[in-house]
Amino acid sequence: MANGCEMCCEILIAILLPPIGVCFRHGCCTVEFMICLLLTILGYIPGIIYALYAIVFVDRDQYFDEARRPLYAQN
């Protein structure tokens, strides 16, 4: 998980260039990046909204931990 300064810098970059902010967090060949790129091409504001969502709320590491899987994935 990122510390406060890293998160703040990623949010500022995501406001200026949404796909670049998502790329720093998730990588350039991920679904999150492609969605953000498409939304930014279609409209700048939806790209910013999705980039902020992807940076702040989407944490890929939690899905690989057995104790923190989403409720719908548990048996």
Automatic annotation (TrEMBL):
- Is Transmembrane helix given among the entry's keywords? yes
One of the record's GO cellular component terms: membrane
Location in the cell:
Membrane
Keywords, A to Z, come to: Membrane, Transmembrane, Transmembrane helix
Keyword Transmembrane helix among UniProt keywords: yes
Q: Where are the transmembrane segments?
A: 35-58
Q: Name one Pfam family in it.
A: Pmp3
Q: What domain of life does the UniProt record list for this protein's source?
A: Eukaryota
Q: Which PANTHER family match?
A: HYDROPHOBIC PROTEIN RCI2 LOW TEMPERATURE AND SALT RESPONSIVE PROTEIN LTI6 -RELATED, LOW TEMPERATURE AND SALT RESPONSIVE PROTEIN FAMILY
User: Family, per the entry?
Assistant: Belongs to the UPF0057 (PMP3) family.
Q: What is this protein called?
A: UPF0057 membrane
